Amino acid sequence: MKSKFNLLFLALLLGIPFRALSLEINKDSLFQVWNNQANPPKDRVIAFYQRFYPITGQEVLDTEVMRWVPSISIVQELALQSGQVNLLPFFKTLEAGGFMLMENIEAGCGASKEAFHLALDQNDRESLTWAYRFLTTFCYQTYSIITKNDLNELDQLIFNKIQKTDDVNEKVPLLNIIALHFYYDNKYPEALSLYQKNIEYAEANNIADSDYAEELLTVGGIHKHLQNFQEAKSYYHKSKKVALEISNPQLEMNVDMNLAELFTLINEIDSAQLYINNVFKEYSNIPECQPCMGRAKTINAQIQNLKGNYSQALTNLLELEYLFNENKQDPYDIGYYYAALATAYLGTMQPNRALEAARKGIALVGKNNAIALLNNTKVLLRAQEALGQYQTALTGYKKYYQLLDSISQIRNSQEVLRKELAFQFVKQRLDDSLQYEQIRHQKELLFQSELNKQRLTKNILIGLGILSAIIAIGLYYRLQFIRRTQTELKLKNEIIEAEKQKAQTSERAKHQFLANMSHEIRTPMNAIKGMTDILIRRTPRKDQHEYLQVIKQSSDSLLVIINDILDISKIEAGKIELSKEPFSIQETINNVLTIMQFKAEEKGLQLKKKLPEEALFVMGDETKLKQILINLIGNAIKFTNTGLITTSVTAQSEDDTVKLHFTVSDTGIGIEEDRLDKIFKTFEQAYSDTSRKFGGTGLGLSISKKLAELHHGSMWVESEKDKGSAFHFIIPYEIAIVQASASQSDFIGSESYVREALRDIRLLLVEDNQFNAMVAKEELEDAIENIKIEVAENGAIAIEKFKLTDYDIILMDVQMPKLNGYEATSKIRAFSNGKSAIPIIAMTANVLKEEVERCYQAGMDDFIGKPFNTDELIQKIFKLTYSKNHEKL
């Protein structure tokens, strides 16, 4: 039964119409024509063809169908003998479908390949579509009978066919087949490109058929997966309009089903209920589509969950359970079903069953249904929290936010890019238009001036009396011309100003997106990283220690990616500021090599250095130099399997400045010469498969080069394939005059002094996230002896605790319910007694410059980002409480 229902669902997805039972041709009459060998071969072939055309996917192996099955090879021979070669692709596809129904998948795949080639030669679009989908869906994705290379060869044949024909009507169906393949492989840019070509062609030629409606429907599905819900809704409505115009009830039902599903995702309950009710009405005209009904009832249950009718939803879903347990539904719908079932269990206070359902949904969901995977993951985490499984939920949150982030990045990066390109295009048009207008007006002014001169000369000859009148007329027209020119220029300036406002709005949207993403990712990352460090200090078993180290390294890598994205945004916006402090070049490089030593040793690589013998002290931004060196050395380690990595520095002094030439060389895989320029571009890597083989986002080298140029320096690379690479950068620095002297401050800043000074300190931790509060409390209790920590879940509770208890310092989260960190700080600073001067450190996942400045404006004394470094936090606490601590010692 599994194959039968999958074929039926495939027919639904492809938009192939069902035949109503009342319109069926008399099967017995057709069989009599076929079975009578005295009839002409041509008539017998036509009878066989009419019995099964069009292929619908709703056939079952009953007695009526089985009487035709043994003759499938005979009808192909007769078609060939009677000159009906054009029907061979159909019969071969029919044979493949029969094998699939009998679950002889290997034979079905063989027949599908033959059908594909025959249909391609005969330009039989319907048979080609069915054969191709058999091969991709069953033979490749489900049963792995064929390989990815086999599919690539089929794709190449279709592309060759497209290139050889100039007939657009022949190209469009072929492009649709490839586009659908891209869609189910989650290759959305490639799919969208092909669909847009076909849609543009259809609209330009006023074509409104089922193919056009299906293209609109599929593009809407792509936008739904990217969570561009407004775009998806627009395409769905366009598809519904075409379906109504061409009277295609099955397509109408399919569009209404997708609209109902879309409205559940955006919590528009009334609209969702309206469209799912339409589906139930339309189903009466298509009773054969059982998977349609299973999907529709699942969506209706989701709507009941949104309304809070969990018991009703659970009853309805359990009635459908046999469909999903017996694999009678497509994996696409299975994911939605178990997400709805888990939600209903959770709503009826059955968290254990919710947990089981969500796990089953995650295991069975199709790979092209990211939204269902997100929904199952989300309800799984809620069930774990309901059962008190906080540690397990914490691990799950990382995966959930990775899924959510991957979708959001795609969606938002496309939106920002589109706005920026649109703005640049309009701005360029305005600039060109204004320049043209200015040149034209200048020419007109010159022409008018010359005309006035000629008139003046002529009027002198005529007489001084007429001269006055002509001058007056000339001045009048000149004044009118200037006024008109000024009006036009003012209008152009207003248009430019409006476009400037658009660009600023786009920039604000981009900035808000970065702020939100920074906060939403850093918040769970703080818990993951913090609890991992805590567990490592708890002396775990050796195998547990290894697993924890993997989590820690993965967390650090993710944090690097987050920081890289923020850095590239700041650099492009011109918001990076360089500090100017004295530091030692040798000490900086030694610190960087110490940091990278562990990664090098993991791969069995050596780190070497060649530094000047004389001490180099310069004035500059040490943090940015470290960032460049860590990026380059980390890149070298990533692409080097054996050998060594050498960091060298040469100095060239001139007056009070020194030009430092840094080189990071390796014995790695190297880069071909024609790829060298590509590696410094944002989100680019030398080869298309680099990210898959070695990881990375393509940001590190781009950031490093921009930072070097920000220092008024430069960066370049020398490389040879299979021999290694050498990255060079030059930065000019001002020479620093440093006096080597020890003082009491060296001792006061020491770790042992600081931790002893902070003993018995009283601290108020204001944090609404339970996991992050747990991390901060554990980290500080491990680091400071006898520290006393109280936790407030929001700013309002913090104010009440602050009124009743004396604290030495407050750690204040920023984004909290009821009363946020800014408002709570302002209220504390407004206290009339001496308590208002208590030190306050902001702790937030939003590390953008504007947010940091807002913390200081609200009255906070210092700032630390999440995930935080415990040693750095302790130093900040010590600095703000130094006077009290000094008295204590």
Keywords:
single chain, 889 residues, alpha/beta, Heat Shock Protein 90, seven-stranded mixed sheet, five-stranded parallel sheet, 12 strands, 9% strand, disordered N terminus
Whole-number average pLDDT? Answer: 80
- From the spread of the alpha carbons, the general shape counts as globular
Task: Please give the radius of gyration in angstroms.
Answer: 36 Å
Beta-sheet strand percentage?
5-15%
Helix content: 55-70%
Report low-confidence residues grouped into runs of 5 or more: 1-25, 413-433, 686-695, 740-747
Main beta-sheet strand count, sense and barrel state:
7 strands, mixed
Ends: how far apart? 81 Å
* Secondary-structure content class: alpha/beta
Number of helices: 36
The beta-strand count equals 12
What do these coordinates show?
The protein starts with a helix and ends with a helix. The protein is built from 36 helices and 12 strands. Helix 2 packs antiparallel against helix 3, helix 14 packs antiparallel against helix 15 and helix 24 packs across helix 28. It is globular and about 110 Å long. Strands 1, 2, 3, 4, 5, 6 and 7 form a 7-stranded mixed sheet that branches. A 5-stranded parallel sheet has the order 9-8-10-11-12, sandwiched between helices. The N terminus is likely disordered. Among the domains are: 164 residues, no CATH class; 139 residues; 155 residues, 2-Layer Sandwich (Heat Shock Protein 90), CATH 3.30.565.10; 139 residues, Rossmann fold (3-Layer(aba) Sandwich), CATH 3.40.50. With 889 residues, it is α/β, with parallel strands linked by helices.
